[in-house]
Design goal:
Largest sheet: 6 strands, mixed
Helix content: 10-25%
CATH superfamily of the largest domain: YbbR-like domain
CATH architecture of the largest domain: Beta Complex
CATH class of the largest domain: Mainly Beta
Shape: elongated
Number of domains: 3
Radius of gyration: 36 Å
Strand content: 35-45%
């Protein structure tokens, strides 16, 4: 009489019996699952950076970088990873564009670091850009004083060091510019001793003009006693 077969022995026999075929069936099921998953597409909405590239000596009026809203489409698989910020940065080549106001289009071709398996849909594909030539020019510096000297004294002389300063900026902003003012220097209740102070330049934040070298000048103010009228 044969001894009774335990439940564990029966379970092991079921697993081992035709093990190769069972393993092959599992591998086939996994492969089929991955194939089905690879046909599915995952979409992701993102706001990305757009970098504008120009020739040397050509300036973009306004922000040098822009933003764009895109929809990123990618295979929905177990191995799909999200792109990095660098991969989702658009590069726009403006080196062959004419000066002035232009409009350029943005597409998936502007994402050179992005995996080609991914596709990009740009919601608003047009970017308005203005290009101008970058020039340098030396202009006079004008001191702006604020307040009044001490009672009984008046301003005798104002000197600026250096008296001229080199600026850089777009030709449209700088070509007709002959001078630039300082940020107001407060001389309230000063005198009779000379007064000297560092003063920044009053730059228009909306313009492209910037100092080429120095961004401050020295303003020196001399005082004298007020002359009594005869």
């Amino acid at each position: 009489m044969n001894p009774p077969v335990s439940i564990l022995s029966r379970g092991a026999r079921l697993i081992v019996h035709n093990f190769g075929l069972k393993l092959l069936a599992v591998a086939f099921a996994i492969a089929l699952y991955l194939i089905v998953r690879s046909q599915q597409v995952r979409e992701l909405n993102r706001t990305v950076r757009v970098r504008l590239h120009t020739e040397s000596g050509i300036l973009v009026i306004g922000p040098q970088e822009r933003i764009a809203n895109i929809t990123l489409r990618m295979p929905d698989t177990l191995f799909t990873r999200l792109p990095t910020e660098d991969e989702l940065t658009a590069e726009v080549d403006l080196r062959k564009e004419r000066l002035g106001k232009i409009r350029v289009s943005l597409s998936g071709e502007n994402f050179p670091n992005l995996d080609r398996r991914y596709s990009v849909v740009v919601h608003d594909p047009w970017i308005d850009v203005e290009l101008d030539r970058l020039i340098q020019k030396k202009v006079r510096v004008k001191a702006v004083l604020q307040g009044a000297p001490r009672l009984g004294f008046e301003i005798d002389r104002v000197s600026i060091d250096p008296p001229d300063i080199e600026l850089t900026g777009a030709r449209r902003d700088l070509a007709s510019m002959e001078s630039i003012s300082t940020i107001p220097v407060d001389i309230s209740n000063l005198g009779p001793k000379d007064y000297s102070a560092q003063a920044g330049l009053a730059l228009d934040l909306e313009a492209t003009i910037k100092p080429a070298t120095l961004d401050k000048v020295t303003v020196k103010v001399s005082f004298a006693e007020k002359r009594l009228l005869p």
